[in-house]
Amino acid sequence: MKKLLLFYWLLLGCAVTTLAQSHVVKGKVTDASTGEPLVMVNVQLKGTTTGARTDAAGNFSLTVPDLQAGVLTFSYLGYQAFTQNINGNTNISVQLAKDNKQLDEVVVVGYGEVKKRDLTGAVTSVKGDELKKVPSTNVIESVQGKLPGVDITKSSGASGAKVNVTVRGNRSIRADNGPLYIVDGVQYENIQDINPNDIQSMEVLKDASSTAVYGSRGANGVIIITTKKGVAGKPRVFVNSYVGVSQVAGYPEMATGPQYVALKREANRTTGRWSSVADDPLIFNASEVAAIQNNLWTNYADLLIHDGLQQDYQVGVSGGSEKTKIYLSLDYFDEKGLFKLDRLRRYSGRLNIDQIVSNYLKVGMQSQVTYYDQDSRRDPLNQANKIIPLGKPYDEAGNLVIFPNQGVMINPLVDEQPNAYENNTRVTRTFVNAYVELTPFKGLSFRSNFGVTLDNSRNGIFAAKNTIDRATASASRSQYNTGSKSYISWENVLNYQQKIGDHSFGLTGVASLLSDQRDSSFLQGEGQLLPSQLYYALANNVSGIAVRTSYMANKLISFTGRINYNYKGKYLLSLTGRSDGSSKLAPGNKWAFFPSVAGAWRIGDENFMRGQHFFSDLKLRASYGIAGNDAVPPYATASYLTKIPFSWDDTNSALAYAIGSQIGNRNLKWELSSTTDIGVDFSILNGRIGATVDYYDTHTKDLLLQRTLPTSSGVGSVIQNIGKTRNRGVEVGINTTNVSTRSFTWSSNIVFSKNKEEIVALADARTNDVANGWFIGQPVKVFYDYQKTGIWQTGDKDEATKYGQSPGDIRVKDIDNSGAINTQDRVIIGKQVPTWSGGFNNDIKYKNFDLNIYVFARMGQWINSEYAGKYDPQGLENSAPVNYWTPENPSNEYPRPNASISKDGRLYIKSLNYKDGSFVKIRNISLGYTLPASALKQLHISNLRVYVTGKNLFTFSKIKEYDPERGGDLSNPLTKMYVAGLNVEF
C-alpha cells in the first residue's frame, strides 16, 4: 500500500511540473494595411505540430512549453508568411502584409517589361515550368487550351508536324492569320526550333493596344518568347531527358474481306448481274475468286501503322559573375512516326551571353543553331484504305506482290521496299541576336538590337517506278530542291522612365528595319540510271529534265512611339503610335499609321475598397487600336510574264510569253483591323480565386483578298482590297487555390474562349461568294451543301419519283419546298471553327509527389469526315463497313450499292461526310516525384525529379475511333504517347 501511495505522489508531482512548464500565448492577427482582423490564419509553433487558427475576431490562443525560446509562424493564403519570437510575451499582436508576388511579376511586352499590376492591355503570361508539362515537338502545342482566345490544333500526327495557331479568330479570308512570333526581341518564324527547357516565359499579346507597338506585324496577335539567361553565382548544370512511345490515337477500320465481297455482290445484285455465289466469276477475277474461297484478305492499315518513338536529351549550364552571365544548352530530339520512313532528328545548341562593360554600357547576345535531318513519306493510308482487301500482300516465297489480285491498284507497302522511295530534308538554321545597351543616367536607356536568321535547306525526293507516286508511270522520278532565307532585323529602342511625385512616366521610341530575302531552286528528272543515285546525278536521268529558280525579297521600315502614364499607381494610361512602310504594297499606299490607346483603373487600390474583404484585387481595363496587315506575297502589285508553248506551224516551235494567271494591282494597300477591348482582372477570398475576363470586338476592312476574274479577262485572279470581317468574343481565365496546407496543395486553372467570326462584306458588298464558300454573316470556313435527311424508303417510292429518285437513294431536304432539288436547296451545314473552347488544368502536390491532370475541349466545330465518305457504291474500291440500304435492310444511313453508278455520279454523296467534330480530351496526365533534400545532399545533387506522363490519352466525341482534332482527314492520324522522364540539376 505504501508503494502504491508513493507511485501516486510521483505521478502527481510530474503532472504539476509539466503544468508549471506550459504557458498560454494569446494574440491577434490583422491586415497590415487596413487593420481588419484576419480569420483562419494558421499559427504554428516552429519545429512542432502544435498549432491553432484565428477566430472571427482574429484572436488565437496557443499553449507552448517555453516562453523564451519559442518561435511562432503565421501563414495565410494571399499574405506573406511571418515569423515572431515569443521572447516571454503572452500577448502578441501580428500584422500580415499582402503577398503581391503575382501582381509584381514582370511581364514582357513589346520593347519592354512591366509589372503585371500595371498592364493596360490583354496579355496572358505563361512561365517556363508550365511549358514543360506536356512533352511535344513544338512548344506551342504544350499550351493548347491554356491561353484564353488562342486556338491551337495539331495539323497531323506525322513527325515534326506543324501546329495551327490563331489568336481571336480568322480576320483575313485568304491572307495569313497566324500570329507574330518574337524570340528575345527578334521576329522568328520557326518556333518549333525552341526547346521548352530553354524558355523563361511566354507572353501572348491579344488586343490592339498590346500589339500596336509591332504595327502591321502584330495584326493577328503576338507571341513573345523569352529564353533563359545566366545567373550570377555558382554554375548550375541541368540535365533533362524523356523517352516516350507513341501509338495511334484511334483509327477506324476499313471493310474486311467478307464485308467488301458482300458490298460488291449487293452492288451487282442491284443491276441484275449477280444473284448467287455462282455468279462470283462474273464480278470478280480469278485471283479474287480464289481469295474468297480460301478466306484470304488483308488489313493493310495494320501492316503500315507501328508504334512510334519520341525522345529528347538536353544538357545545359547557367552561371557567371555579377558582370558576365552565360547560359548554354545542347539538345537532341528524335521522333519516329507511326510509319516507316517517317523520322525527325533535331540537333540544337543555344548560347546566351550578357556582359556588363561599365556602369552605363551592357552588351550581349542570344544565339541558336538548329539542324534538322528529316525523312518523310507520302502517306500510304489513302492507298491502303481503297485497295481491294482480298488476297495477301506477299507471295508464298515472301516477295511483295506489287499489284495484288492481278488488279490495277498498287500495294500500299511498296514504298517501304529497299531503294524504292526516299524523301529527305536537311535544314540548318542559325539565329543570332546581338545587342548594345547604354544607360547614360538613371531612367534613360538606349538599346540597339541586330538580329540575323539564316536558313539553308535541301530536299531530295526519289520515287522508283513501282511506288505509290509512280504507280502509273513507266520510269522513276528524282527531285532536288534547295532554298535559302536571310532575315535581318535592326531595331533601335529608346526608353525613358521618370517619376515626379505621384506621377510616373514611361516614354519609348523605336526605329526598325526588317529585311527578308529568299531564293530557291527546283530540279527534276525521270528515269534515274541507278536507283542508288536517288536524287543525285540528275544529268543521268533520261527524260523529264526540268529546272526552275525563284527569288523574292521585301522590306519593312517602322517608327514607333509609346507613352505610359501612371498616377498614384491606380490610374494607368498608354498611348501608342506606329508608322509602317511595306515594300510589298503599291506606291502611294506603302505607308500607314496605326494608333492605339489603353487605360486601366486599379479599383482595388482605392481607399473605399479597404473596408471590404471580398476583393483582394480589382482592375478595370479598356483599349482601342488599329492594326494593319500586309500579308501578301511580294510583287503582288506587279503583273508578270510566263512562258507558253507556241509554234509558227506544225513543226517549228518558238518562244512566247503571256501575262501570268494573276494580274498585278497597282492600288494595293493595307488591310486594317480596329479592335475594342474591355477587360477586368480581379482576385477574391485573399487571392484564393483570381480571374481575367475580356470582351473584344474586331472589325477588319480592305481585306487582302484574291479575287477570281472572268475567263474573258484573259487572266485568272487578282489580289484586291475588298471585303470586311468581324470577330467578337469573350475570354475568361480563372486561377484557383483549392487546398493549401503544409503537405498538400491543389490549384486549378480554367480557360474559356468564345469567338463569333463572320464575314461582313465581300467583293460585291452583301452578295455571297458561293464558288469559294464565303457567306455574309458566317465564319470564313464553313460547309455548304445539301442537308441529308435519310434514305428514300420503299414506302416513299411515289414521292421519291417526283424528285427523280428511287428507294435506296440519298434523301435531302427540299429547303424552299419547290418540289425539286436544286442549288437553292443548299444550306450551311456547319462551321469549321469551334463555338467555344476551354481547358481545365489541375496541379496537385503532396509532399514530394506532384500530379498534373489537364482536360481540353473544343466544341461546336464540324468536320468533313473522310471516313464517313469512304463508301464506294460500285464496289470498285474498298469502303468503310457502313450500314447501307437494301430491300431487306431499310437503313437510313447510306444509299444502296449500285455497280452502274460511280461514287462521283451518286447524287448528294458528299452530304454523308459532315459530322459534329466536338470533342473533350484528357490532354495530359503526369505524375512526378522529387527526391527529398536529405537524399540529394548525399548525392551532391541540387534537384532530381522523375516523372511519367500520358499525353492525349482519351478523347470523347461522337466520332468513334478517331481524334476529331485532325479535322476529318484519315492521313497521318494523331497519336497518344506514354513518357518517362528525368530532370536533374547539379
Automatic annotation (TrEMBL):
Residue ranges constituting the TonB-dependent receptor plug domain according to the UniProt record? 115-222
Question: What is the name of the protein in this document?
Answer: SusC/RagA family TonB-linked outer membrane protein
Question: Where is the signal peptide, in residue numbers?
Answer: 1-20
Has the keyword Transport been applied to this entry?
yes
UniProt subcellular location: Cell outer membrane
Organism (species): Chitinophaga tropicalis
- Entry's family note: Belongs to the TonB-dependent receptor family.
Q: Which InterPro entries does the entry mention?
A: Beta-barrel_TonB, Beta-barrel_TonB_sf, CarboxyPept-like_regulatory, Plug_dom, Plug_dom_sf, TonB-dep_OMP_SusC/RagA, TonB-dep_OMP_SusC/RagA_CS, TonB-dep_rcpt-like
Primary location recorded for the protein, binned into one broad class = membrane
Membrane topology, record value: Multi-pass membrane protein
Q: Which UniProt keywords apply?
A: Cell outer membrane, Membrane, Signal, TonB box, Transmembrane, Transmembrane beta strand, Transport
> One cellular component GO annotation, for this chain's record?
cell outer membrane
Q: Where is the TonB-dependent receptor-like beta-barrel domain?
A: 413-953
Looking up NCBIfam families in the UniProt record yields: OMP_RagA_SusC (TIGR04056), SusC_RagA_signa (TIGR04057)
